[in-house]
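Hi everyone, sorry if this is the wrong subforum. Our group has a chain we'd like a structural model of before ordering constructs, and none of us has done structure prediction before. Sequence below.
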Amino acid sequence: MGKKPQRDVEKDYPKADVVAKLRRLADAIESGERFEIQIAGERIYVPVRAKFSIEHERSEEDEEIEFQLKWSRE
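Answer:
Right subforum, don't worry. Here is the predicted structure as tokens:
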């Protein structure tokens, strides 16, 4: 398989779509299965070995919480 191009995308989704994606993610984590998700037209396969973190950022104007999944492509 060829090298994938770099990508940095942020996409807004309706609340119902986010709920469905989070529910599927939770089910995959709980059952020990890989997670598949489509983001801005690209299908992503998150392996079981992915690491999870939760990040909180604050500025004078905004606050942000990010649920992150990270893995190497080895």
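For your construct planning: The first strand starts at residue 35 and ends at 39. Strands lie at 35-39, 42-46, 51-58, 63-70.
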